[in-house]
Amino acid sequence: MMPLSLCFSPLTLHTQQLHHSRIKIPLFRSNIAIKSTIPISQNPKQHLSRSRIRRIRSCQTNPGESSPVTLSPANDRWETVLSNLASLYPVYVTVGGVVACLKPSTFSWFVERAPNSYSFSLGFIMLAMGLTLEFKDLVNLFKERPLSILFGCASQYTIMPAFGFIISRLLGLSPSLSVGLILLSCCPGGTASNVVTLIAQGDVPLSIVMTVCSTLGAVLLTPLLTMVLAGTYVHVDAVKLSISTMQVVVAPVLVGSYLQSTFPKAVKTALPFAPLLAVLTSSLLACSVLSENIGRLKSSMVLTSLSSETSPLLYARSFLSSEMGMVVLSVLLLHFAGFFVGYIAATLVGFKERERRAVSIEVGMQNSSLGVVLAASHFSSPMVALPPAVSAVVMNIMGSSLGFFWRFVDPSDSESNSKD
């Protein structure tokens, strides 16, 4: 398994232009640093091999640029430890989910302070993203590859919302769970999508810009789509949802970006700790919501009434017929549809393999933390927040598995030029 470095340092990549100009794009959320620049048009097998993925110590500069500061061995080791700990996000959220099921009172101190505790937590996660965000670099990349980026963002806000609505109808979910699933499907941008894309040898720059665009677009599109699709179940106040999204997502991102440009030295000192704190906060948020609802979910399950001699098939049927089973099944189907249809859609429009993988991962991985916060803040039933909370566990397991599968399957057309 290749070692991952999750510090919030810039990822330097060659563009596809003949002059090979370079841009530095922050790989926020789960940033992976690569020792040398990667020509996008070349075979990633030569550049993303296990021996080539290393902790970044320096990067090449253009003529006239000042040389970057080289990290001391002690600082390098310390940041590597923090980065490796941050890479265990799927483990944290899975273990936390098990604890929430077995002993829900573990998270009572956090649940009792909801929804404020949920909102502040998501705001902190988005602030960590903003600390690494340089809008000028993202704008430059958007100018170079507009078609791929526009298609990817459009896919995020069409494929998943449509399947969220369809799955809720097909499974006959209760109104509260239907609203929760639809709300989740309207919150694109998985927490670890950039990491999974790099592991999968996908188009990392495309993944980064899609994440940024979907995050900023959430202030308008998430409330609007939720109102249209979930309005048949309950009344949805799109204006209040939009204001909340602005407060807990867009505002912290902009503040973080401002701090980065205004106080670069202070931000540089805090950056090594940001990934680990962000993933721990995200895990706490998801597991707290799960613990809040686990009591009523257990009461809806009929497994306890079955004898020890009951066959595994009957246990499975009983679980799926329960409310908890329906939530898990609906979330599984939603993310599977996102990964699969996202890949197929990118294939049909003529994208190359690396772009297909990036689109598939970005479409399939959602911002479950945003879904949890909006559900807890604007809907009276706590069950609305359950699908996003379960998604935090299921999504990371599915996404990581897909990424590691693709890691060992070289893109067949990786040497071809991209669509743009």
Automatic annotation (TrEMBL):
UniProt topology in membrane: Multi-pass membrane protein
Transmembrane domains' residue ranges: 117-135, 147-171, 177-199, 206-229, 241-259, 271-291, 324-346, 385-409
Predominant localisation class: membrane
A matching Pfam family: SBF
An annotated GO cellular component: membrane
Cellular compartment(s): Membrane; Plastid, Chloroplast envelope
UniProt entry keywords in alphabetical sequence: Membrane, Transmembrane, Transmembrane helix
Lineage top rank: taxon: Eukaryota
InterPro entries tied to this protein: BilAc:Na_symport/Acr3, Bilac:Na_transpt, Na+/solute_symporter_sf
Family of this protein: Belongs to the bile acid:sodium symporter (BASS) (TC 2.A.28) family.
Protein name as catalogued: Bile acid:sodium symporter
Organism from which the protein derives: Lactuca virosa
